[in-house]
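User: Modeling request: complex.
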Amino acid sequence: MKTLSTLFRNNIREYGMLIALIVIMIFFYFMTDGILLKPINITNLVLQNSYVIIMALGMLLIIVSGWIDLSVGSVAAFVGAIAGVMIVKWGWNWVLVIAICIGVGGLIGAWQGYWVAYLKIPSFIVTLAGMLIFRGLTLVMVRGESIGPFPEGFRNISGGFIPDFFNYEGFHLTTIIIGAVVSIFLIFADLRTRRNQTKYGFEVPPLSFFIAKQVLITFAVMGFCYLMASYKGIPNLLVIMFPLVAIYAFLTNQTVIGRRIYALGGNEKAARLSGVNTQRLLFFTFVNMGALAALAGMVVASRLNSSTPNAGEGFELDVIAACFIGGASASGGIGKVIGAVVGAFLVGVMNNGMSLLGVGIDWQQAIKGFVLLLAVFFDVYNKSKSA
Amino acid sequence: MSEVILEMRNITKTFPGVKALDNVSFSVERGEIHALVGENGAGKSTLMKVLSGVYPHGSYDGQIFFEGEECRFQDISQSEEVGLVIIHQELALIPYLSIAENLFLGNEREKFGIIDWNETVLRTKEFLNKVGLHESPDTLITDIGVGKQQLVEIAKALAKKVKLLILDEPTASLNENDSEKLLELLLQLKENGIASILISHKLSEVSKVADAITILRDGATIETLDCHKDTITEDRIIRGMVGRDLTHRFPPRESKIGEVVFEVKDWNVFHPQHEHRKVSNNVNIKVHRGEVVGISGLMGAGRTELAMSIFGRAYGTRISGKVFKNGKEIDVSTIDKAIANGIAYATEDRKSYGLVLIEEIKDNITLANLEGVADRGIIDEPKELTVTREYRDKLNIKCSSILQLAVNLSGGNQQKVVLSKWLFANPEILILDEPTRGIDVGAKYEIYTIINQLASEGKAIILISSELPEILGVCDRIYVMRDGKIVGEMPAKEASQEIVMKHIMFDQEVVAQ
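Assistant: Request completed. Predicted assembly structure:
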């Protein structure tokens, strides 16, 4: 029992927000008489929060580097507007336009990254300017009106679902099979880590804990897939999002670039004196952010089926909140991709749950603000206790 | 003139692993200028921090009496209240506020929180007159030179009704003329009954104005010399400063010195902010294979600046000169190129420049050579663990696990992590900047052993150190730096602390006489 409590205490920081997410989900599940976990609602939850998660991946890297990007909402809107003009007004091929738009996002990131990394202007100012610039340019592009509708292919990015190869009546079997494959993959990956840890003499959690963890994860993944299978299956968007999350988790945990970003945020001077080209690294973190904001912008445009002048307003705050709720440190050097994703879902579930309960947007905002403050306090408090 | 204004009794202050002050007693009489001298790290600054309340009562042992009453300062404001003001080497003025605003900062002329500007300006003029500074009270601090800023600091102290003024290296950044004026001012204050404690490396100044000199060494009071009773020569002071027992031991070493590996020619560097200040002035140095070369000098002599400018231009502007390795000119224009060319620089300030404190030991060790544990950009974790454990064992880093955060290690072990990082980058030339600063004797010995080991493996090592015994005990050859210039070079065998100290302190000609 003692080991269990120390285990809990050691992992509270890592799993704290996950536990909070589960608690909040249970809370809203009962408050909404189960609507929260209805297949259609779960699918909506994923679709509604996709853009936050996509941008949180880039934002996390920026926050870990020790900076911030306030412009992502405006950049997303601006790129969405470009997509609208190109596809709807000029009739360009939407696949080509997506490629162009991601390139434009990268260029915007390069523009901001240049000011921050090479001209040493604080990112708060550069991206505050960017927030105004790109919102303004969005209005210029769409001339104050909505541009739409988009062709079906483009709409399907956020509105479509993967095809079912089995045609099982009323149930999306492919989804279940994909869920099973992912579950097995996750178990093997975790098993490999555990074996490596044992091999190199690190203390690992007891086997019972490990098994319990695997059962829980499998249960969650399969449950999630079951719910989606009973609706329309896996949304196309998830096919884009899930690999992205996996790639960024891998990038931050296992690669030289990832390690250098943490070093840059942890101590910029020490990183520089260790031969890390800190300016270039920071520059590319912003380029990456720009490209992801562009992707999010197109997802939003696809979902709304139009490019609107006020798309993406306030997104930056949700994205930044997701990162901080997920345990990223405002002073840089600390933060995890998975944390940011959990943070994004936490914000998403709260939005969704409160909307279902009929809580007005006014109270939703206030409550979200409190949650952000509490989450960061919890994090800081935990850190000061462990230090 | 024999009334004691300040008495510090049996002060002992320990930091984790280091005894910074060991039973120090020190007293100052009313209206005297009392000099406090000693090597870097002898404990002068620590003693003054204890006195002024930077280290609050209770964090040290011993007693402090000021004007006969025992003081238990919790912070600086309490010590200033009784008339004890310390002026730090790094001036504590706000650059974009005016002289008047700075003068009364924290001591504002106010009624109900509203500043009385007439009174402020009037009183400022009065105090500026007292220190002989003729500037408008509205002038911004940033617009006046360091010498004048120093005078503003003193005026600020006067505004606080100072009885005992403590000056930490006040003339370190002043030119001859300004230094002269400052010393004159101290003598004048003395006439008005204000006592001063003068911490200085410049012994000529000390012997000129001091009434008494207390020498600290290794955190203990060695002696107090009365300048009125005996004539005190500078040599006499130096002997007191360096004449230590063998408290540090150095591991024995047989040097096998090979051909010249590393050479820096005609190296000139300018200060990044003060564009006309040369921080390296025509420096020429060379290092042989298997040789440990020391660079000695005071803080601010330009040693760190030299090293960092060579290491990928990490410091300074308008850098000119050539760097050779094995006779061939190499490109050291960026840090990664310098590392790729086999140069490593372990910084003097490990916390700000050497380590990512919030990261694990493992991450710190591999940071400078991540490619060494990665395959096509992906980190090979088992390999990284093996490598870092190897260094932990080799350098005897005391930690619970290599996954421990660097911030939780002691100074000596942090230093070993920094060394591990650079050893893993596998350099041929290793520049160690104050590698033993702030670490205890045992860990120092271990660091020296590592240095010997590296030299015997054929690496060329440059050791920058302010501790003379260390330079003499570890190096084969010694360069002495002053004001950005190499002012002396000698084999360690022919050097003694007195000789090196004289090179540090005086011009070459004086030494020759």
